[in-house]
Design brief:
The chain has about 180 residues and is of the alpha+beta class. It is built from four helices and six strands.
């Protein structure tokens, strides 16, 4: 019974963490090294994350600078960024690569805010689905006489409390990210 509650909370935590990761990758007109997390560069035949072959830093609010430890990688990094879906053209000066993030238009901001709301809603659906599975597990355990009816009711209440807490967290994260996008 406690394992059901524990696994429910762990699964819900993972859903919230996934949402936070998705939010960190949203391009918001500000330079954010996280936009490069999914970009891999060919490093001696192995696809490698840019932050493992170069120093990535934010020099100004909208400028990201990538300084490879091995300058022979400049071309490869530039190509990897160009073929990714980031949508920003890298500028290579022979020593570093600069990425200048354009300011967002009002329409684009509204679009991003809608996407954020959709991501939040999808995560809430995932959390509720986890709750439903856990409740069904408890009913099954009660049917097999593995737990008493009181244990089932107590566990269901705990699972509902955990669900409510995670939904509140998702709402708060979503609202915070939407506000951040609209303030830029």
């Amino acid at each position: 019974m406690n394992t059901v509650i524990k696994s429910t909370e762990e699964k819900m935590d993972k859903s919230v963490q996934h949402l936070e990761t998705e939010f960190s990758e949203i391009r918001a007109g500000r330079a954010n090294p996280a936009v490069l997390d999914k970009v891999k560069v060919d490093y001696y035949g192995a696809p490698t994350a840019i932050n493992q072959v170069a120093a990535v830093s934010v020099t100004e609010a909208r400028t990201l600078v990538i300084q490879p430890w091995d300058t022979s990688l400049l071309r490869s990094i530039e190509k990897a960024i160009q073929v990714s879906d980031i949508g920003i053209n890298p500028q290579n000066d022979g020593k570093v690569i600069r990425m200048i993030f354009p300011p967002l238009t009002e329409d684009r901001r509204k679009e991003i805010v809608k996407d954020i709301a959709k991501m939040g809603e999808e995560t809430k659906v995932a959390v509720r689905s986890i709750r439903r599975e856990s409740m069904e597990k408890l009913k099954s355990m009660k049917k097999k006489s593995e737990i008493t009816e009181d244990d089932q009711k107590t566990s269901e209440k705990k699972i509902q409390d955990i669900t409510d807490k995670h939904i509140k967290t998702i709402d708060s994260l979503t609202e915070k990210k939407q506000k951040q996008i609209m303030e830029i």
